[in-house]
Design brief:
Number of strands: 14
Strand order of the largest sheet: 2-1-3-4-5-6
Helix content: 40-55%
Distance between the termini: 45 Å
CATH class of the largest domain: Alpha Beta
Mean pLDDT: 94
Bound molecules: cobalamin, iron/sulfur cluster
CATH architecture of the largest domain: Alpha-Beta Horseshoe
């Protein structure tokens, strides 16, 4: 059977915010995970629109499309194109799971939730000629998970080919997070077995590794066991942790010993009332500076994530938060405007209050304000959001954030990492165009080391 997996590119692929390097970071891991459930004699291709110009004139037996919120309309357009020619289309992923009825207008079958449950059941029925219109999410056993089919990725098209996950979901319940919609009604946190995780790490070539897990320390025992086993492997890895996870016990030291060198942390807001309102429990009552100093002492860089537009925010919050991040020595910052993704608790709350202004998914990209805020207008919020980015990445602010570190080594790492990420766009564009990812990865590894 000929099966084509597609990761459509978001609408901005042709827009002003398109950063080729951002979308050449990771290969489509979810689709490679599903491809592993196909038969050996199936002819499989994975198309990632972020890194290639696809041609959809082919005649596969089955097309499987992944949807995020911002690529939903593009996903629907591709699906419609195939279905017009009588080709069977199935859709899954975060957006289709949240809004299956919407997705069903463009797909023959919609699969909900983690694909490891629904996809093998669907494939079986499809081969029997009896596919159902919907496959509901159900709890998943990840213990027998086959290895993702990384051999199907476009080789040399990514800066970070070694991405993986060893947990799925998160035990926390922040009201704005996809976790509250994607896993609705079932378990919201799954783990792989230690042996299986080690086997996957072993199968990856090169030193650098990016764990895409929502929270690396969500299962402390598993993380501890994993980090112990990873010691001496010579890996350098990045991933997401919570403020509490960094402060509590000695797990962060264990992670460092295993090669952890750059932490993505959702600080979200420095205002406790905001944190309470959005149920960001892992941050409430935590001293952010304790976490920052601990990471700094170890030599772990911080990518801080911040959300603007929570109810307690005012126009000055943008500048104050940006200043706070610079003065705290955060290496890179990711700013967002609060976005009520459909299916989340936040969305339900705002909808009940009649605050959502529109449901055009292209705007649900965390750069647009899609709801009424108590004091911020849409124009003001969006302007201040862009200003926060500009301010944070001005050379003199990068330099002043870097100067906050005690050790010279951290100062230099900070300068190189932050500067390279945001200030050398033409160089990145050249690297992407010429597919010079191997030397770029070497530099990344040297910086992380
Ligand atoms: C890596 C990543 C990216 C990469 C994507 C590149 C890539 N090649 O994947 C980059 C950096 C480009 C990115 C950018 C953005 N991202 Co992003 N990203 C992620 C992240 C961290 C991991 C995704 C992943 O690989 N997961 C692991 C794999 C195994 O899971 P999966 O992809 O979900 O696939 C499984 C299921 O969804 C399902 N499935 C998926 N597809 C299909 C298809 C079929 C047919 C079936 C049956 C099943 C199925 O089965 C798969 C296997 O279990 C997630 C958070 C997360 N934990 O998922 C956020 C996340 C997906 N991103 C998000 C957002 C908002 C964005 C941005 C809009 C943010 C921004 N302002 O820049 C942009 C735009 C992205 C876009 N293309 O539209 C949100 C999406 C919210 C939503 N409701 O859709 C998430 C959930 C983060 C969050 N916590 O809010 N992102
Ligand atoms: S801690 Fe992070 S991943 Fe977990 S629910 Fe909150 S925002 Fe989502």
């Amino acid at each position: 059977m000929k099966i084509r997996f597609v990761l459509p590119a978001l609408q901005e692929a042709k827009g002003p915010y398109w950063r080729p390097i951002k979308y050449s970071l990771f290969p489509p891991l979810g689709l490679a995970t599903l491809a592993a459930f196909c038969r050996e004699d199936d002819q499989i291709t994975i198309t990632d629109e972020h890194v290639e110009e696809p041609n959809y004139d082919d005649e596969p037996d089955l097309v499987c499309i992944e949807t995020y919120i911002t690529n939903a309309y593009r996903a629907y357009a591709i699906a419609d194109q195939y279905r017009k020619r009588g080709i069977y289309v199935t859709m899954g992923g975060l957006h289709a799971t949240t809004l299956p009825q919407e997705a069903k207008q463009h797909a023959d079958t919609v699969l909900l939730g983690i694909g490891e449950n629904a996809f093998p059941r669907f494939l079986h029925d499809f081969r029997q000629g009896e596919p159902k219109p919907f496959y509901e999410r159900g709890n998943v056993d990840l213990s027998l998970l086959p290895m993702p089919r990384r051999d199907l990725f476009q080789k040399h098209a990514y800066l970070v080919p070694n991405s993986m996950v060893f947990t799925r979901g998160c035990p926390n319940r922040c009201s704005f997070c996809y976790v509250s919609s994607f896993f609705r009604g079932g378990k919201s946190f799954y783990t792989l077995k230690l042996d299986r995780i080690l086997k996957e790490i072993d199968s990856l070539h090169g030193r650098h590794l990016y764990f895409l897990d929502d929270n690396l320390f969500a299962d402390k025992k598993l993380s501890r066991d994993l980090f112990r086993e990873m010691r001496g492997m010579g890996k350098l890895f990045q991933g997401a942790v919570t403020v509490r996870g960094v402060i509590e016990d000695d797990l962060i030291e264990q992670a460092y010993e295993a090669g952890f060198r750059s932490a993505f942390i959702g600080f979200e807001s420095t205002n406790t009332a905001n944190l309470k309102q959005t149920n960001k429990l892992s941050n409430i009552g935590q001293d952010y500076h304790v976490a920052i100093e601990r990471l700094d002492r170890l030599g772990i860089m911080i990518n801080g994530s911040f959300i603007f537009g929570m109810d307690e925010d005012a126009p000055q919050t943008f500048e104050e938060t940006t200043r706070w991040a610079i003065d705290s020595g955060i290496t890179t910052a990711t700013f967002h405007l609060l976005t009520p993704y459909p299916g989340t608790t936040l969305h339900d709350q705002m909808k009940a209050q009649n605050r959502i202004t529109h449901w055009n998914w292209n705007d649900y990209d965390t750069r647009h304000l899609v709801f009424r805020h108590p004091v911020l207008s849409k124009e003001e919020a969006e302007r201040l959001y862009h200003e926060a980015y500009r301010e944070f990445y001005r050379w003199h602010n990068i330099a002043s954030a870097s100067a906050t570190h005690e050790r010279l080594r951290m100062k230099l790492k900070h300068l190189i990492y932050a500067g390279a990420w945001k200030r050398f766009e033409p160089i990145w564009n050249f690297i992407v165009k010429e597919k010079l990812f191997t030397p770029a990865r070497r530099l990344l590894e040297m910086t992380l080391k």
